[in-house]
Amino acid sequence: MPASEPIVIVGASLSGAKAAEALRAKGYDGRIVLIGEEEHLPYERPPLSKDYLIGKSEREKAFVHPEPWYAEHEVELRLGSHVSSIERAAHQVRLADASRLGYSKLLLATGASPRHLPVLGGNADRVLYLRTIDDSERLKALFGQIQRLVVVGAGWIGLEAAAAARGAGVEVTVVETAELPLLRVLGPEMGRHFADLHRRNGVEFRFGEVVNEITTEGGYATGVRLRDGSVLPTDAVLVAVGVAPNTQLAEDADLAVDDGVLVDASLRTEDPDIFAVGDVARAHHPRYDKRIRVEHWANALNQPEVAAAAMLGEQAQYDRLPYFFTDQYDLGMEYLGYVEPGGYDRLVTRGDPAGGEFIAFWLSAGRVLAGMNVNVWDVGDQIRALIESGLSGHSVDPERLADPDTPLESLVSG
Questions:
Q1: What is the pLDDT of residues 166-222, one digit of tens each?
Q2: pTM, whole model, 2 decimals?
Q3: Which tens digit of pLDDT belongs to each residue from 293-336?
Q4: C-alpha torsion 372→373→379→380, nearest 10
Q5: Residue 366 burial by CB count (10 A; 0-12/13-18/19+): exposed, middle or buried?
Q6: Half-sphere exposure of 3 toward its Cβ, with a 13 Å CA cutoff?
Q7: CATH 3.30.390.30 at 330-411, yes or no
Q8: Helices assigned H by DSSP within 238-379
Q9: Rounded to 5 degrees, what are φ and ψ at 390?
Q10: Which terminal residue of the chain has fewer beta carbons within 10 Å of its beta carbon, N or C?
Q11: CATH assignment of 7-113+244-311?
């Protein structure tokens, strides 16, 4: 393929914009085309359920770059444009208007889409999802118009939205099929902590429940009917039951897909000229020696630099530990590491969980797999060192790990 063909990035997201930035930073002076379906400039998603939703930050702060940046860096930004197919043999993408665009390298940064609730009434007015900046603005506007909100799903988005709604004075009920919030991610001990946090702030939970119907009147949602036949009256419903990676383009192009586009540690698919990053990528992680897909901001922020290097022929691997954060009420939290559901045998806390300032560690056979600091700051480096030590096979004494008087760095091997 002639070098004159551009690098094409499908997905004008945080990942897409950071990939364009990384290519220019590495000295690539060829044509870059960044294609996005939304009309908005590329933006970051965490503010949509955090500061922007609660009115603490302006819309412009969510944008990855101001509009002039793209012209200044000669990045051709095609917004409101849909890529309908990849023609691998011809090294082209086909757009919805039937035009074609050649590529030398292709980066898929197509992200993920909310899973919908397949029930009667699921398409009624005031049944909302929270994924885009428009979704966040609709929900924020509703906070000033409604008294009651039912949130379906007690994951990160559901809980952050519940906290925002309570801050706006809205009554909130959260419906969750599991017996605790965040159970698959954090396990029962920390799941209970988050349940207690929300109950203290006035949220009602309905655990172990399934939504059978959203009742309506005049086309608007009026209630949520549960499996037992009871109805939770409401003025709006937020569905937050997870997302699915946007893999259709890759599937149609016969690229390997399994809960994400399968890529190696350099973010390269089986096609040497096609790469994937962010929520859509299921990448081989050298530290865990397996493919994982992590739906969090840090991957979208950091993977593009590795993909850009690989597209330019450099040797690069993405081996950062998974990281995410949340802000709910007066709780600020950072989580580092990776634990599959049920993949730990002990949880150790250091500090005062009841007082809201502590660190939690997930252990397996004495090895630290992950750490979560809650309202305790500047400990990320120590937590990272403990996890890396654990990945090398080093175990720690749980009693010393729990002791605030024992420096964390003293528990790191070597």
A1: 999 999 999 999 999 999 999 999 999 999 999 999 999 999 999 999 999 999 999
A2: 0.95
A3: 999 999 999 999 999 999 999 999 999 999 999 999 999 999 99
A4: 40
A5: middle
A6: 6
A7: yes
A8: 248-252, 297-311
A9: -65, -40
A10: C
A11: 3.50.50.60
Cα–Cα distance for residue pair 357/367, rounded to 1 Å = 23
Answer yes or no: are the C-beta atoms of 171 and 149 closer than 8 Å. Answer: yes
Phi, psi of 126 (to 5 degrees): 65, 20
Q: Is domain 123-241 given the CATH code 3.50.50.60 in the classification?
A: yes
Q: How far apart are CA 284 and CA 269, in angstroms?
A: 11
Give start-end residues of each CATH 3.50.50.60 domain in the chain. 7-113+244-311, 123-241
Q: Residue 101: enclosing H or E segment and its boundaries? A: strand 100-102
What is the token pair recorded at 16? 């897409």
DSSP 3-state assignment of 364?
A: strand
Pairing of strands 105-108, 211-217: unpaired
Q: Quick one: which of 170, 178, 325 has its CA closest to 242?
A: 178
> Any idea what DSSP says for residue 125?
B
Both tokens of 397, joined, read 């004494």
| Tokens matching residue 60 | 């412009």
DSSP string of 271-294, one letter each residue: STTEEE-GGGEEEEETTTTEEE--
Q: Please state, in angstroms and rounded to a whole number, the distance separating the CA atoms of residues 334 and 325.
A: 4
